[in-house]
Design brief:
alpha/beta; Metallo-beta-lactamase, Chain A; 7-stranded mixed sheet; 10 helices; 14 strands; 25% strand; globular; binds zinc ion
C-alpha cells in the first residue's frame, strides 16, 4: 500500500462510499451501499475488509449508511461519526450504541499515519461533516451533501491537492424535473445539495489555490447528467493551471484516481 489513491465505490442519491488509501491506511468514507458491493470493490483493488483501517461517516442519511449494520456485524475496523450523527444512528440501529467512535464536529484525530480533520457542513442532517485527510504533504478534501460552501469550509479545502466535491444537480433540470415542489426547494436550499454552477465556481477557487485533482461526486440521477457537470466545471477552469477532473460514477470507478498525478484534464470514470 505504498501508493496513494481515491477509489469511488458508489456515488449519488442511491448510495455513497469511497476508499482513500495513503500512509499505510485504507479508509472508507461512508457506507451507503451493501456490504457485498463494498467487498467486491475492495477486491477489485486487491483489498479485503480486514485491510480497512477505519470508516468515516459524513451523516446519517440512508444513502450514506445503508451498509452500516452489516458492516458492524462482519467487519472489525473502527467506525467514526460526529456526536449528532452517532446519536441519530443509535436511535435506529442499536448496534451503533457502543460500536461507533464519536467525535465532536471540528475535532481532529488520526488513523495510522493519516491526520483526519473534521468540519461542519450545511445540510439537513443531525450533525453532518466533511473531512480533510493528510499524509505528509498531501492533503485530500471531501465535501458532499452541502447546500452551499461556507467560508470556513472553503478555507479548509483551499490548498488540498485533491478534492472530492459535490456537483449534485443542474438547477434547470431540478426545476423542470419530477421531484415534488417541497423536495425541489430542499435540494436547492442552503441545507440541501451543491449545484453544478456552485461546484464549478468553487472548483475555480480551489484550482487557483493549488488543487490539481478534482472528483465531482454525488451527482443526482434525475437532475443531472455527468457530461453537464463535467463541462460546467471544466469551463470554469479555463485559463487556470492544469487540473484533472474526474466524475465519480454511480457504480464503482473503473480505476482508482492516483493523487498528485499531473495529467491532462479528461473525462474519466
Ligand atoms: Zn444527505
Ligand atoms: Zn447524500
Amino acid at each position: 500500500m505504498a501508493e496513494r489513491y481515491y477509489y469511488s465505490i458508489a456515488s449519488g442519491s442511491t448510495g455513497n462510499c469511497g476508499l482513500y488509501v495513503a500512509g499505510g491506511a485504507a479508509i472508507l468514507i461512508d457506507l451507503g451501499v451493501s456490504l457485498r458491493k463494498i467487498t467486491a470493490a475492495l477486491t477489485a483493488v486487491g483489498l479485503g475488509l480486514d485491510d480497512l483501517s477505519a470508516v468515516l461517516l459524513t451523516h446519517e442519511h440512508i444513502d450514506h449508511v445503508k451498509g452500516l449494520p452489516m458492516f458492524l456485524k462482519k467487519a472489525g475496523a473502527p467506525v467514526f461519526a460526529s456526536r449528532g450523527t452517532a446519536e441519530a444512528l443509535a436511535q435506529k440501529e442499536p448496534l451503533c450504541r457502543d460500536r461507533l467512535n464519536v467525535f465532536e464536529s471540528g475535532e481532529a484525530f488520526w488513523v495510522r499515519d493519516v491526520d483526519v480533520e473534521t468540519f461542519e457542513t450545511p445540510h439537513d442532517a443531525a450533525d453532518s461533516v466533511g473531512y480533510i485527510l493528510s499524509h505528509g504533504e498531501s492533503r485530500f478534501g471531501f465535501a458532499t451533501d452541502l447546500g452551499f460552501v461556507p467560508r470556513d469550509v472553503a478555507d479548509r479545502l483551499r490548498g488540498c491537492g485533491t478534492v472530492v466535491l459535490e456537483s449534485n444537480h443542474d438547477p434547470h433540470m431540478l426545476q423542470a424535473g419530477p421531484y415534488p415542489y417541497p423536495l425541489k426547494m430542499r435540494v436547492a436550499g442552503p441545507a440541501g445539495h451543491l449545484s453544478n454552477p456552485d461546484c464549478a465556481a468553487f472548483a475555480a477557487d480551489l484550482v487557483k489555490n493549488g488543487t490539481r485533482t478534482l472528483i465531482l461526486a454525488h451527482l443526482s440521477e434525475k437532475n443531472n447528467i455527468p457530461e453537464l457537470a463535467f463541462q460546467q466545471t471544466r469551463a470554469a477552469l479555463r485559463g487556470l493551471p492544469a487540473c484533472a477532473v474526474h466524475i465519480a460514477p454511480r457504480e464503482r470507478m473503473e480505476e482508482p484516481v492516483l493523487f498528485g498525478e499531473e495529467e491532462a484534464c479528461s473525462l474519466s470514470g
